[in-house]
TrEMBL record:
Pfam families: FMN_red. Gene3D superfamilies: 3.40.50.360. Coiled coil: none annotated. Residues 6-190 form the Flavodoxin-like domain. InterPro entries: Flavodoxin/NO_synth, Flavoprotein-like_sf, Flavoprotein_WrbA-like, FMN_Rdtase-like_dom. SUPFAM superfamilies: Flavoproteins. This is NAD(P)H-dependent oxidoreductase. Belongs to the WrbA family.
Length: 202
């Protein structure tokens, strides 16, 4: 059978979500998927970015990562979205990309794929679940198959978020527990998408 195509589409201002996205890519590749790691376009004004050295640096460091396009969505059997929490919601940069997908949605091209999401926030109760659940609202509209990590692996009892991998950025960069949770979440998404792909090919 053809390998699963997994698109990891994320936004990150200062690198936290990017680190989780990279770990997810590792987990998915290990699970046998073809992976496209894609950032969404930055839309914040230059003054805002330039006022934050970490934001400026991350933008430069990730300049070579390809921006997400509609082709990545149609190519994928499964899609993992990553976003920082912004007042308990996904970042507007990611929403801006999502809100260009009307024509694909209308043609049914976003249906029946596997979807899952991960996030970061500055504080432990800063809205990680609400951000992931807000993205899931869109997955319902698309007719997606939502695959959360739940507590289906021992790492989930350490990382502690059944909705999707999440990290408290205020504690520093993601450590091994969060990175392993991201790898696991991606592998679970790939395994589920592989079952569906095999059943559809049969
Ligand atoms: C406009 C704005 C809103 C934010 N809202 C929240 C929030 O509701 N809860 C929280 O814990 N952190 C909040 N943060 C902090 C970000 O979630 C945090 O910086 C981000 O997860 C870091 O991810 P990144 O390094 O990938 O950009 C906010 C940050 C900004 C700039």
């Amino acid at each position: 059978m053809e390998p699963v195509n997994l698109a990891i589409i994320y936004y990150s201002a200062t690198g936290t979500v990017h680190a989780l996205a990279q770990a997810a890519a590792e987990g998915a590749e290990k699970a046998g998927a073809h992976v496209r790691l894609r950032k969404v376009a930055e839309s914040a004004p230059a003054e805002a970015i330039n006022a934050n050295p970490a934001w400026t640096r991350h933008l430069q460091d990730t300049a070579d990562i390809t921006e997400a396009g509609h082709d990545d969505l149609t190519w994928a059997d499964a899609i993992l979205f990553g976003t920082p929490t912004r007042f308990g919601n996904p970042a507007s940069q990611l929403r801006q990309f999502v809100e260009t997908t009307g024509p694909l949605w209308y043609q049914g091209k976003l249906a029946d794929k596997v979807y899952s999401a991960f996030t970061a926030s500055n504080t432990a109760h800063g809205g990680q679940e609400s951000t992931i659940l807000a993205l899931a609202n869109t997955f319902y509209h698309w007719g997606g198959i939502i695959v959360p990590p739940g507590y289906t692996d021992p790492i989930q009892f350490q990382s502690g978020n059944p909705y999707g991998t999440s990290h408290v950025a205020g504690d520093g960069a993601p450590g091994e527990v969060a990175l392993q949770a991201a790898r696991y979440q991606a592998s679970r998404v790939v395994d589920t998408a592989a079952l569906l792909k095999a059943a559809r090919a049969a």
